[in-house]
């Protein structure tokens, strides 16, 4: 009897439905996806090449100088950056590094551009909060590999679908932290801003966003780290960079090259993390 | 001319606020409505007028609705019902644009915890109200400077709020509120977060400023002393409703009901002096270090005939008289132990005046004031009598 109950409803064709839906999206929005694929792909290629065309020594020096001033004229991060980046170059991974940086930076920038406004929307509207929150949960808990499939359908292979997958995976922290940061602004400051006759926009830009800045930056830091963690996964759909070295080492069971490429990612992660954190703690 | 006139201003918190309003109009109490519907009454049909250039104090215990009431006046909280007339316009019905204009030009607010923007410098804080009106930087900077000078904070322009003490921060709050030269100033427990001494200074300063500026000030407080000091008229609130409105004298002499009376009593109780108010710093010698010779020398210096004795931990031991000390000196005795007398009354620092008087009126010696056995002061008869005289003076003034 119980068995009958559970068997009563036939399998709901979620998989088929999803496949149909993605297929429909792909063909319907091809006019949108194709130009993105072409032009954004070209742009990323161009950025990576530009970065690669700068002599490594100059890149290392610029990063070291930036680290020195950003950390309040301390040598620690600067020294680490010099050594770390030199090591990556020494291991012959410089070109991969430039691709990875391009991918991470572009994905992060897009995440922030998309994430902050959604965070603001959530903080201002209970309805938006109720709708967006479960979507964010979904985006973060769905295994990142799953995003690769529609990404390939929409954008083919290469860096563009990689950015697309990172975007879905890495945007939620920025949205969440922006929302949190604005909600945490002390009531009295919001009241003060209102009591002097601020418009909504004035309140947002002159009081709420500056007050929430530290929290938002913590979210952005998370976003960048997640984008970096997508580098390896995105290499499965042909995104070039350090991740591809890791993947090919994995496929051939070469522990040495795998470790070296992994180390490159770690070095990059530490440098990026400390950079974004220092922007955060400044002032 | 009435500058502000409030009619039946009501705030019901909760989703079915109209239902709460109906019940209020039927005369139900705050507690009944809460029990019946779960709605919280913030303010219950408050009506009053505030005259031009008057300091109008709204007083009540926490939860009495005073902070809600002041926020209804500038609509930081939307009223459920009622009217707020300012210069002939009903603020409660205004559209957003007109409301903003009123907030920008006519009414500004000072907050309990100052409400300063921590990422802006002092001068940037003060000019906030002008900045959002789109006044050009030079003009607004000049106005902000003048305002800052008015509250005595010239020279602090480029500091950040967290670099200033509480009292100074609230001056900044005041300067910010004055910068756009409003006719109405709303002050929500503005001095409550300050320590008592600074609070008195700020009250005096507000009165000084008011003499020059002649603003209409609506001042919220839970402290009757403060209300009596600065208020031209005082409103007492309870459970969201206004219980009594009157001048300080009227409130003190003719409390409208038990609630007000209890308030007034509280004031008297708080005015009761304790030992710590009238004690003086004592002259002492240290029994562990000093002998009769030093004791005599100190008494001669101070022109007294006995001196209190403590040990190295400031623990109170007793006293020695000049007569005993000079005998001991002649006998070449080096310590004070032999001549120490302990028949002196000891009282705790927080002993009320009333009890001190009972102790002191039939003994010849002064009274030692101790805190955890440590000597903190001394009370002589004269001081008690002087204090009592002052106290009755205060009372007859208030009556």
UniProtKB/TrEMBL annotation, chain A:
InterPro entries: MetI-like, MetI-like_sf. It is a multi-pass membrane protein. It is found in: Cell membrane. The chain crosses the membrane at residues 12-33, 53-70, 100-123, 144-170, 224-243, 255-272. The keyword Membrane applies. One of its GO terms (cellular component) is ATP-binding cassette (ABC) transporter complex. One of its GO terms (molecular function) is carnitine transmembrane transporter activity. Residues 97-276 form the ABC transmembrane type-1 domain. The keyword Transmembrane applies. One of its GO terms (biological process) is amino acid transport. Its main location: membrane. Pfam families: BPD_transp_1 (PF00528). Keywords: Amino-acid transport, Cell membrane, Membrane, Transmembrane, Transmembrane helix, Transport. Belongs to the binding-protein-dependent transport system permease family. CysTW subfamily. This is Glycine/betaine ABC transporter. It comes from Salipaludibacillus neizhouensis.
TrEMBL record, chain B:
SMART domains: AAA, CBS. It is an enzyme of class 7 (translocase). It catalyses: a quaternary ammonium(out) + ATP + H2O = a quaternary ammonium(in) + ADP + phosphate + H(+). GO terms for biological process: amino acid transport; glycine betaine transport; response to osmotic stress. Residues 4-264 form the ABC transporter domain. One of its GO terms (cellular component) is plasma membrane. SUPFAM superfamilies: CBS-domain pair, P-loop containing nucleoside triphosphate hydrolases. Its EC number is 7.6.2.9. GO terms for molecular function: ABC-type quaternary ammonium compound transporting activity; ATP binding; ATP hydrolysis activity. NCBIfam families: proV (TIGR01186). This is Quaternary amine transport ATP-binding protein. It comes from Salipaludibacillus neizhouensis.
